[in-house]
Write a structure and sequence with these properties.
Chain A: Belongs to the cytochrome c oxidase subunit 3 family. The complex is a heterodimer. Helices cover 72% and strands 0% of the residues of chain A. Chain A is mainly α. The radius of gyration of chain A is 23 Å and the shape is globular. The chains are: A mainly alpha, B mainly alpha. At the A-B interface, α1, α3 and α6 of A face α3, α6, α7, α8 and α9 of B.
C-alpha cells in the first residue's frame, strides 16, 4: 500500500511465449491433419518450455532482489488460487461427461424414460457400466477392466502419502528446518514419480491385456480422458516440485517468504483431490 | 432530440483543472523501447488496453465484412453471389470472430484501461501476464482466419459447432479451429485472473468493495464467469479433438456417447458466455447514465446484487438453448422457469437506469446517446429472450430468424453500443481531446437506423418460419430480407464514421480537462487528460472520504 508495488518495465517473454504457443499449436495441428511437421511441434514445445524457464527465472530473480512486497504476494496468491479454480472447472467438464454418460446417455440408449425412442437405433443394445459392448458393432469394447484394488489402490496410497509428506515438508520450511523440508520434499517427489510409473504400467496393461483403448467406445474414452489429463497434471506437479527442490538446495525461501513452494503445494493437493474423485468414480463405482 | 444547448462540458472548461504539464513530465520518465518493440514488450495497462481495443476494432471490421457477405447473398432469394459452402463458412466465422475476437477483447481492453484508473492502482496486478494475454489473441485469430485458405475451407458448422456436424462432417481445418479456440481461451482465463487479482488486491486504501464503480463490479463478476466456464469450453473442444483425431466416442452414440452431451457442455459454457458479453456493458451504461443525468446512480447496491444474481442464474439456464433436442419434461420446465427468473434482476437494472434519468439534468452528448439507445434496444432483446424462454413457443421459434433477431438485439445495440458508448465516454481520458460531437451524432443516428432496419424485420421473417443459416429462402421472405440487407450495409458503412472520429480525436480536437464530463465522478477523472503513462504510482488515500454511494 506504500506505493512500492513492483511494476516490471518491459519483458520479452510474454510476446515470445505467445509466438511459441502459436508454433506449438500449429505444429500439433499440422501433425494431426497432414501427418507431417513433427519438427515444428518439437521446436514449438521446446520454445514454450524455454520461455517458461526464462520467465519464471526473471520472477525468481526479482523476488530474490526483494522487489516484491506483501501486496505483490497477495496478487500471486489470488492468481494461483483462481488458476486452480479454472483447473477445477476443466476437470468438472470431464467428470460431468462421465456422470452424464452413465446416468442419462446409456440408459436412454437402452430405451429408458422419455428419450427411450433412441432404442430404435440399436434394439439389441443393453446398457451397462463399464460399457463392454458399445451399441454399434463396428466399435469393439474393452475385454476386461482394471481392478481398482490392485494398481489403482497402490497409486491412491502413493498420492495420499505424497500429500502428507509434502505438508510435513512445508511445515518444516515454515519452522526453518531446511534439511527436513528438503528430505520430505524428496520423498514427495519419489512418491509422485512412483505414481507416474505405476500409471504407465497400468496404461500398458490396459492397452495390451484388457483392450481398453481410446477407440473402445465411451468407457475407454472417459477412462483415458480423465486419467490422462490427471496424469499430465501430476507430471506438471512433479516438475514444479522438482524446481522447488532445486530452489531449496540453492538456499532460496525463508520461513515466511516461500510462496512459490506453497503454490506448488496447493497445486499438488488439488491434483491429489482430483485423483480421489477418479479412484472413486472411474475405478471403484 | 438534438439539444440546442452547447455541450455541458464547454461550460465547465474553466473550472476544471488541467495538469497536462504534469502528464508530459511523467512521460519523460518512460525510457523503454520504441516502435513495434514498445508494443510487443509493454507491461503498461494503458498500452495493453489500447492494443486490445485496436485488435478488437480490426476484428469488428473483419467479422462485419463476413456479415455483409451473408447479407449480400440474402438480399434476394435464390443463390446469388457465393456458394452455399462458403456462405456457411461466412456465418460461422462471423459469429466466432465477433464473439471471441471483437466483443470479448473490447471489454478486456476497456478493463485494462479503466479498472486500474477506477480503483486507484498503478497498473494491473500481474503486468507481464497481461501482455501475454493480449499477444495470444493475434496468434489465435491469425490461426482461425488462416483456415479460410485451407483445403476444405474454414469451419462451416455455425459458431456453436455442434457435434457431429463439426466432428464427423467438419472440414479438415476443424483441428486448427479447435487449437485457435484453445489459445483464445487461455488468453481469456489469464486475463480474467489478472482482472480479479487487480480488483481484489489493488484498490486504493479506503476504497471498499461497495465503493467500487459498477464497471469494476460488473467486471469482477464477469471475470469469475470467465474463469468458471472457459475451462469447460476447453474441455469440450478437447473432446471434439479426440473424437476427430483419436477415435474416441464422446459425441458418438454408436460408441455409447451422446451428441446431446456436446450441447450440454457447450451451452454450460455458452450461456454464461453471453452474460460475459453483457455484464461489462451494464457497467459502462451505469457509468454514463449518471454522468449525463448529473445524478448519482439510483440503487447502487441493488445493481451489484442484480449483477451477481444474473451471474449465478447463468449457470442454471443453459438448457433453454436445447428445448427441441428431446429432453425430459421436468428439465424443460425447470430451465424455462430459471430462464424467466433472469428477467427479474435484469428488470431491476433497467428500472435503476430509468430512475437515474428521472428528473435529471440530462444532456445528450454522443456517449449518452449510445447509452440511452442501449437501454431501449437491449430491453427489446430482453423481451424477445423472454418469449424464447417459453418452451412451447420456443418449439416454434427455434433456429429461425427470430432467434437471430433476439441475440443480435442484445449483442449489437446491446454489447457493441455499450462498447462504443464507453469509447466516446473515455476517449477524452485516453487522448486528451473530445471526440467530434457532430460526427459522433451522425455515427449514432446512422447506427441506430441501420441496426433496426437490419434486425427488426428478422423478428417477422423468423416468426413466419424462415430458418437461420440457409443461403436461400422462400419468396414470401423476400421483402424483409431486402430491408435487412439494406440496413446491414447502412450499419456497416456507418462504422467507418467511427474510425473517422477516432482518428480525428487522436490527432486533435477540443482539449479535455481532467474531469471531461461534469457529472462524471469516478477516480479516473481525477488524473489528467490524456492520462499519463503511469498513474497512481502512489495510491490515492480515500479513507478520509465520506462513503460516496450510499
Amino acid at each position: 500500500m506504500s506505493g512500492s508495488y513492483y511494476v516490471p518495465e518491459t519483458s520479452k517473454w510474454p510476446a515470445l511465449g505467445s509466438a511459441a504457443v502459436g508454433l506449438m499449436m500449429i505444429g500439433m495441428g499440422v501433425v494431426l491433419v497432414h501427418g507431417v511437421g513433427s519438427l515444428v511441434l518439437g521446436l514449438g514445445t521446446v520454445a514454450v518450455l524455454a520461455v517458461m524457464w526464462f520467465w519464471f527465472r526473471d520472477v525468481v530473480i526479482e523476488s530474490r532482489q526483494g522487489l516484491y512486497d506483501a501486496q505483490m504476494d497477495r496478487s500471486f496468491r489470488w492468481g494461483m488460487g483462481w488458476f486452480i479454480f479454472s483447473e477445477v472447472m476443466f476437470f468438472a467438464a470431464f467428470f460431468g461427461t462421465l456422470y452424464y454418460v452413465r446416468v442419462f446417455a446409456l440408459p436412454w440408449l437402452d430405451g429408458e424414460g422419455a428419450k427411450g425412442i433412441a432404442t430404435l437405433l440399436w434394439p439389441d443394445f443393453t446398457a451397462s457400466w463399464p460399457l463392454m459392448n458399445p451399441p454399434d458393432s463396428s466399435i469393439s469394447g474393452p475385454r476386461d477392466i482394471v481392478s481398482p484394488w490392485q494398481l489403482p489402490l497402490v497409486n491412491t496410497l502413493f498420492l495420499v502419502a505424497s500429500s502428507i509428506t509434502l505438508t510435513v515438508s512445508h511445515e518444516a520450511l515454515k519452522e526453518g528446518l531446511r534439511a527436513t523440508a528438503r528430505n520430505w520434499l524428496i520423498v514427495t517427489l519419489a512418491l509422485g514419480a512412483c505414481f507416474l510409473v505405476v500409471q504407465g504400467v497400468e496404461y500398458y496393461e490396459a492397452y495390451t491385456h484388457y483392450g481398453i483403448t481410446l477407440d473402445a467406445g465411451i468407457y475407454g474414452s472417459t477412462f483415458f480422458l480423465l486419467t490422462g489429463f490427471h496424469g499430465f497434471h501430476v507430471t506438471v506437479g512433479v516438475v514444479t516440485l522438482a524446481v522447488m527442490l532445486g530452489r531449496i538446495l540453492k538456499g532460496h525461501f525463508s520461513r515466511d517468504d516461500h510462496f512459490a513452494f506453497e503454490a506448488g503445494a496447493w497445486y499438488w493437493h488439488f491434483v491429489d483431490v482430483v485423483w480421489i474423485g477418479l479412484f472413486l468414480f472411474v475405478y471403484v463405482f | 432530440m438534438a439539444p440546442k444547448l452547447p455541450p455541458q462540458h464547454t461550460l465547465e472548461q474553466s473550472s476544471a483543472t488541467t495538469t497536462a504539464g504534469q502528464a508530459q513530465e511523467h512521460d519523460h520518465h518512460h525510457g523503454g523501447p520504441t516502435g513495434i518493440k514498445r508494443w510487443l514488450l509493454t507491461t503498461n495497462h494503458k498500452e495493453i488496453g489500447t492494443l486490445y481495443l485496436l485488435f478488437s476494432l480490426s476484428m469488428f471490421f473483419i467479422g462485419g465484412i463476413f456479415a455483409l457477405v451473408v447479407r449480400a447473398e440474402l438480399f434476394q432469394p435464390g443463390l446469388q453471389l457465393v456458394e452455399p459452402e462458403f456462405f456457411n463458412q461466412m456465418t460461422t466465422m462471423h459469429g466466432l470472430i465477433m464473439v471471441f475476437g471483437a466483443v470479448m477483447p473490447a471489454f478486456v481492453g476497456l478493463a485494462n484501461w479503466m479498472i486500474p484508473l477506477q480503483v486507484g492502482a498503478p497498473d494491473m496486478a500481474l503486468p507481464r501476464l497481461n501482455n501475454f494475454s493480449f499477444w495470444l489473441l493475434p496468434v489465435a485469430f491469425g490461426l482461425l482466419l488462416s483456415t479460410l485458405f485451407m483445403p476444405g475451407g474454414a469451419p462451416n458448422f455455425g459458431w456453436t459447432f455442434y457435434a457431429p456436424l463439426s466432428t464427423d462432417y467438419g472440414p479438415p481445418s476443424t483441428t486448427f479451429f479447435i487449437f485457435s479456440l484453445h489459445i483464445a481461451g487461455i488468453s481469456s482465463i489469464l486475463g480474467a485472473i489478472n482482472i480479479i487479482a487487480t480488483i481484489l488486491n489493488m484498490r486504493a486504501p479506503g476504497m471498499r468493495m461497495m465503493d467500487m464503480p459498477l464497471f469494476v463490479w460488473t467486471w469482477l463478476i464477469t471475470a469469475f464467469l470467465l474463469i468458471a466456464v472457459m475451462p469447460v469450453l476447453a474441455g469440450v473442444i478437447t473432446m471434439m479433438l479426440m473424437d476427430i483425431n483419436f477415435g474416441t466416442s464422446f459425441f458418438d452414440a454408436g460408441g455409447g456417447g451422446d451428441p446431446v452431451l456436446f450441447q450440454h457442455l457447450f451451452w454450460f459454457f455458452g450461456h454464461p458466455e453471453v452474460y460475459i458479453m453483457i455484464l461489462p456493458a451494464f457497467g459502462i451504461v451505469s457509468a454514463i447514465v449518471p454522468a449525463f443525468a448529473r445524478k448519482p446512480l439510483f440503487g447502487y447496491a441493488s445493481m451489484v446484487y442484480a449483477t451477481a444474481s444474473i451471474a449465478i442464474l447463468s449457470f442454471l439456464v443453459w438448457v433453454h438453448h436445447m428445448f427441441v433436442v428431446g429432453l425430459p419434461l421436468a428439465a424443460e420446465l425447470f430451465f424455462m422457469y430459471t430462464t424467466m427468473l433472469i428477467a427479474v434482476p435484469t428488470g431491476v437494472k433497467v428500472f435503476n437506469w430509468v430512475t437515474t434519468l428521472f428528473r435529471g439534468s440530462i444532456t445528450f452528448e454522443t456517449p449518452m446517446l449510445f447509452a440511452l439507445a442501449f437501454i431501449v434496444m437491449f430491453t427489446i432483446g430482453g423481451f424477445s429472450g423472454l418469449m424464447l424462454a417459453i418452451v412451447p413457443a420456443d418449439f416454434q421459434y427455434h433456429d429461425t430468424y427470430f432467434v437471430v433477431a433476439h441475440f443480435h438485439y442484445v449483442l449489437v445495440p446491446g454489447a457493441v453500443f455499450a462498447i462504443i458508448a464507453g469509447a466516446y465516454y473515455w476517449l477524452p481520458k485516453w487522448t486528451g481531446h473530445y471526440p467530434d460531437e457532430r460526427l459522433g451524432r451522425w455515427h449514432f443516428w446512422l447506427s441506430v437506423i441501420g441496426v433496426n432496419l437490419t434486425f427488426f424485420p428478422m423478428h417477422f421473417s423468423g416468426l413466419a418460419g424462415m430458418p437461420r443459416r440457409i443461403p436461400d429462402y422462400a419468396l414470401q421472405f423476400a421483402d424483409f430480407n431486402m430491408v435487412s440487407s439494406i440496413g446491414g450495409f447502412i450499419f456497416g458503412v456507418s462504422q467507418l464514421l467511427f474510425i473517422a472520429v477516432l482518428i480525428k480525436c487522436v490527432r486533435g480536437g477540443e482539449k479535455a480537462p481532467a474531469k471531461a464530463w461534469d457529472g462524471a465522478e469516478d477516480l479516473e477523472w481525477t488524473v489528467p487528460s490524456p492520462a499519463p503513462l503511469h498513474t497512481f504510482e502512489t495510491p490515492p488515500d480515500l479513507t478520509s472520504q465520506a462513503p460516496q454511494r450510499h
